[in-house]
Specification:
The complex is a heterodimer. Chain A has strands spanning 5-7, 10-13, 19-24, 31-38, 42-50, 53-57, 64-68, 74-78, 87-94, 103-104, 108-112. By secondary structure, chain A is mostly beta strands. In chain A, β7 and β8 (74-78) form a beta hairpin. The chains are: A mainly beta, B mainly beta.
Chain lengths: 113, 112
């Protein structure tokens, strides 16, 4: 079966713009989590959605938001982009909320110039 | 808050064993994980251990957990060049099962 699909793979945006990233989880998976990976901060948890509801949120400003649709697909949005938002954004899906195994996508590489 | 520490770099010869170490601070950790990330790729879950276990073996991988010292290790037997990657230790604790806290990652270099 298909893995976790993130689109687009690469993105270049200008400071001040906004961006929307998409994640399609593995078929049947209902939990989707988002992570930001940067060389300086490593991998940091952004938020997690289950059944269209945000269940957990990391320590990121309100410019970072997300949502999940009824088909479990998820989007994350970053408004008023800053140079420091340049990162690899990873999405993970798992079957249920308390599942041990999360499958990660290839990520979206966002560059803010 | 939760904190997970790893050494940044490890170099081993092909065929030797690799041991990657990790320490964490969250005493309420429930699951501890090892992920592998190859260049340009996402994260691949290698193995995980529940906090009430001491050891888990899966083919060439052995995970040891010392809960008292909050120390986790991953041993890779007969290390191959294909094992070269960054290895992340991670845990889920009081923040919720899917709020995973990752370590800084250990870059494993396997010398042929």
């Amino acid at each position: 079966k298909a893995g976790v699909t993130q689109t687009p793979r690469y993105l270049i945006k200008t400071r001040g713009q906004q961006v929307t990233l998409s994640c399609s989880p593995i078929s049947g998976h209902r939990s989707v989590s988002w992570y930001q990976q940067t060389p300086g901060q490593g991998l940091q948890f952004l938020f997690e959605y289950f059944s269209e509801t945000q269940r957990n949120k990391g320590n990121f400003p309100g410019r970072f938001s997300g949502r999940q649709f009824s088909n479990s697909r998820s989007e994350m949005n970053v408004s008023t982009l800053e140079l420091g938002d340049s990162a690899l954004y990873l999405c993970a899906s798992s079957l249920v909320l308390e599942n041990t195994e999360a499958f990660f996508g290839q990520g979206t590489r966002l560059t803010v110039v | 808050g939760e904190d997970v520490e790893q050494s940044l770099f490890l170099s081993v010869r092909e065929g030797d064993s690799s041991v990657i170490n990790c320490t964490y601070t969250d005493s309420s950790s429930t699951y501890l994980y090892w992920y592998k990330q190859e260049p340009g790729a996402g994260l691949q879950l290698l193995t995980y251990i529940f906090s009430n276990m001491d050891m888990k073996q899966d083919q060439r991988l052995t995970v040891l957990l010392n809960k008292k010292d909050k120390h986790l290790s991953l041993r890779i037997a007969d290390t191959q060049t294909g094992d070269s990657a960054i290895y992340f230790c991670a845990e889920t604790g009081s923040g919720g099962y899917q709020k995973v806290t990752f370590g800084t990652g250990t870059k494993l270099q396997v010398i042929p």
